[in-house]
């Protein structure tokens, strides 16, 4: 299994990501903030006839990582054209709206870096 890493942001706003290629599919893991954890997991199944993906999400009670997990999984599956899982857990104590936005942007940046590297590797192989 091939594994790649990326990160985005600094300090308590740093998001670390990893992508593991599982055959044709990809498993993503993201964590960050002051208390990394597993907060939500989404599975996106690419549907070629729609050029989109359907997504199912499981969220740990009391956590709010589901929106990022679902949107990240849908984006990745649609872009890569395969089945994708995204596990995410990001926490910063008493984060205000501006801090939450920084974390969202850093997650998106980390995902984009991983997707770009996966696409580059696919181009070089095929």
Explained architecture:
By secondary structure, this protein is of the alpha+beta class. Helices cover 35% and strands 38% of the residues. It has two helices and six strands; from the N terminus they run βββββαβα. The chain has helices spanning 66-80, 97-125, and strands at residues 2-8, 15-22, 25-33, 40-47, 52-59, 84-91. The chain has a six-stranded mixed β-sheet. Helix 1 (66-80) runs parallel beside helix 2. It starts with a strand and ends with a helix. The model has no long low-confidence stretch (mean pLDDT 95).
Give a quick precis of the structure:
This protein has about 130 residues and is α+β, with helices and mostly antiparallel strands.
Topology:
Elements: E1 2-8, E2 15-22, E3 25-33, E4 40-47, E5 52-59, H1 66-80, E6 84-91, H2 97-125
Parallel strand pairs: 3-6
Antiparallel strand pairs: 1-2, 2-3, 4-5, 4-6
- Sum up the overall morphology in one term: globular
Query: Order of strands in the sheet with the most strands?
Result: 1-2-3-6-4-5
Question: Rg to the nearest angstrom?
Answer: 14 Å
Q: pLDDT below 50 for ≥5 consecutive residues: which ranges?
A: none
Count of DSSP helices?
A: 2
Distance, first to last CA = 18 Å
Look at the structure and give the mean pLDDT. Answer: 95
Based on secondary structure, the structural category is alpha+beta
Order of helices and strands: EEEEEHEH
Estimate percent helicity: 25-40%
Beta percentage is 35-45%
Question: Largest beta sheet, briefly?
Answer: 6 strands, mixed
Q: Tell how many strands the DSSP assignment holds.
A: 6
């Amino acid at each position: 299994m091939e594994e790649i890493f990326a990160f985005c942001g600094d300090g308590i706003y740093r998001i670390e990501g990893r992508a593991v290629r599982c055959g044709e599919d990809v498993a993503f893991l993201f964590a960050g903030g002051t208390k990394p954890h597993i907060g939500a997991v989404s599975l996106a199944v690419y549907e070629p006839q729609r050029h989109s993906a359907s997504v199912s999400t499981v969220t740990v009670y009391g956590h709010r990582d589901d929106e990022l997990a679902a949107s990240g999984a849908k984006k990745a599956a649609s872009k890569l054209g395969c089945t994708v899982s995204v596990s995410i857990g990001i926490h910063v104590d008493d984060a205000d709206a501006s801090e939450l936005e920084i974390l969202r942007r850093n997650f998106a940046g980390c995902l984009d870096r991983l997707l770009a590297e996966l696409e580059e590797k696919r181009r070089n192989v095929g």
